[in-house]
């Protein structure tokens, strides 16, 4: 097992490096950038000042490389070169990438271009919101999916199994953002009932509430985003549970136990349940990380939750590269580590599983 863990850890390095190289290369071809953003802001402010003061004269564009930036007309070339040096764009792309990765290996993600805060502090600030959403959604999915999947397996082929499968497939087919918007329209004052708040995780004056009041307010706010985030995981996990139980029910040892006269409940809960739940329980880390990554972006944007998904989206839109690449690196590393933890949980729950015998 030790050599398997070592191989997986060694495989994380090229995998993570590949993710970063591909995204860094793609960014080089995307129009715009942090310097263009700043120059456009400066030009807009200068234009507004000129309009207020009655000025309307145009200044010729400075000569040199500054012509590559939109919005750089009328700005000194020295100012633009200073911006390039400040953001590191005076160096070639491969050198910037190497310096970035050397910093990431030491968990030094730099500082946001547009906020006076380090990337790691930003991530730690936004992390609780995304973890809250992912954890509650995963727990809710397990609480619903396991009993439902077991019942579908026991009554396989019945009317209940047929119509519940139809509902599950329909729910899985609906995009998460569309379901989130539907919940807002129905229950957040969109067009029908105003039962739940429209955005955020807490109300104004949250700090002034009692503990029970804060707990009630918090639960009241997370109902809609957690429900929207649960849909995909709920459908997948229900079918996984059903298939796992069906596989165990159809095995020879179950037939033998029944032939010996064991009660059906004893066969099911004494043998089938324990074995079938192995794969479901061991998949918890993977299910959590799936909800964490899959739902955080869209759900956080729709419900205005200040988490990691929204942070990464805003960083991409604003060309805040340290935040964008920093969150990408952290997400990639987390997903690889959780994948390894999931494999280790399978072995811990069922020692018969032997990853060591697999060929690399």
Task: Report on this structure.
With 360 residues, the protein is mainly α. Helices cover 72% and strands 0% of the residues. It is built from 13 helices and no strands. It has helices at 2-27, 34-53, 77-87, 93-105, 119-154, 159-173, 176-187, 211-249, 252-259, 264-282, 284-302, 308-318, 321-349. The chain is globular and about 90 Å long. The relative contact order is 0.13. The model is unreliable at 56-67 (pLDDT under 50).
Q: What are the secondary-structure elements, in order, as H or E?
A: HHHHHHHHHHHHH
Considering DSSP H and I runs of 4 or more, what fraction of the residues is helical? Answer: over 70%
Tell me, rounded to a whole number, the average pLDDT.
78
State the shape.
Answer: globular
Feature tags:
mainly alpha; 13 helices; globular
Helix-strand layout with pairing:
Layout lengths: L1 H26 L6 H20 L23 H11 L5 H13 L13 H36 L4 H15 L2 H12 L23 H39 L2 H8 L4 H19 L1 H19 L5 H11 L2 H29 L11
Helix pairs in contact: 1-13, 5-8, 5-11, 5-13, 6-8, 7-8, 7-11, 8-10, 8-11, 10-13, 11-12, 11-13, 12-13
